[in-house]
Amino acid sequence: MRTTTAFFIGLSSVIGLAGLVALAPPAVPLRASADAFVASLSEHERAKCLRPLGATERTNWYFARGERAGLFLRDMDRDTRAATLALVDQFLSTAGREQWRLIRVVEAINGRNEKAAGVTQPTYGDDLYAVHFFGAPSDRAWAFEIEGHHFVLHAAVVDSVATVTPVFTGSFPAEVGEGADKGTRPLGAPVAIAFELARSFDDAQRAQARIMEKPPADVLWAVGADAKAPEPRGVARSEMNDAQKSLVDRLLAEHAGLLDARVAEAQLRAWRAAPLEDRDIVFAFVGEADLHKPHYYRLATKFFTIEYDSTNADASHVHCVWSDPTTNFGGDALRAHLKAEHGVESARTQ
Question: What pLDDT does 345 receive?
């Protein structure tokens, strides 16, 4: 199986697939990067981005262009910007960091085109990402978010265990149009596997995977759906042939492989620990297995949803989101911490 990091999801212990072993690289303490980030902040920067752990801003997000609260990369000095990017890197794998870089390459190109068109207030740019830090790195629990057009990551750390959902990526156009990265698709690797799986289906499977008449206008588990339960509709892995099961496993591994090994393990922990009957993965596919035509796919379990759409701007505007109501914004672990140690009831549980 090709994977984007040294981390193999460990599916063999979950769904019986041989040859996959969980291998994590030596851990680099998250707290060291968080300490370095907070220490780099000036008083002005601290006022912009430091918040109490129970602040309501922690569970607000959107992925569109425009102004937003927080400290922007564009407004940081060199040291703070370097510390910010180093902290983001802690939550991503090598492949995830490359995807994040390519998303910013696309945004930078769009920004130059916008400027050439006479737009004076930029809405595109590789520095239009804002950050917040909630709590303190020395606390048992803290959170960090970076948010901007087509890249949103909500990291929560409780007792040194980090989760990052909801995590959102996108690209418009879907392919880098110029420069050294021309022709590269920031979100392209998983799509090729999803297409291969969809094309392998017989007529009955194809009909079962087509869970709606046409691809939706956007992903369905994004803003406003953070507490929405997964909907395992489509073709279940348990009902596929061996070759198709392998493709499902590769597709999940491709998505999980964008995260740091420790983070990916935490994101999948509840699913992997569940009874066998609750571990099935369901794949849905709507549209055409063609990069130039609208398409949508979804991996869903009883625990999480990973979905991708390419439906707008002649199928050249793509979005992907990973949502898990038990880990979104720190989930159950952070809610319990806030209630026990801060007397705060999260609005997401009410």
Answer: 67
Segment 136-157 shows an average pLDDT of 95
3-state secondary structure of 154: strand
Distance CA 197, CA 136 (A): 44
Contact 154, 164 (CB under 8 A): yes
pLDDT > 70 in the chain, percent: 89
- How many residues make up the chain in this entry? 350
**DSSP class per residue in 14-80:** HH--TT-----PPPPPHHHHHHHHHHH--HHHHHHHEE-TT-GGGG----SSS--SSEEGGGS-HHH
7: closest CA among 187, 245, 259? 259
Comparing C-alpha atoms, which of 332, 236, 334, 252 is closest to residue 284?
236
d(CA 173, CA 161): 35
Please tell me the total count of domains within the chain.
1
Domain membership flag for residue 209: yes
| Cβ–Cβ < 8 Å for 133, 34 | yes
Is residue 256 included in any domain, yes or no? yes
Give the domain range for residue 176.
12-349
Q: What residues does 259 pair with on adjacent strands? A: 92
Q: Is residue 317 part of a domain?
A: yes
Please check whether residue 220 lies inside any domain of the structure: yes
Query: How many other C-beta atoms lie within 10 A of the C-beta of residue 123?
Result: 15
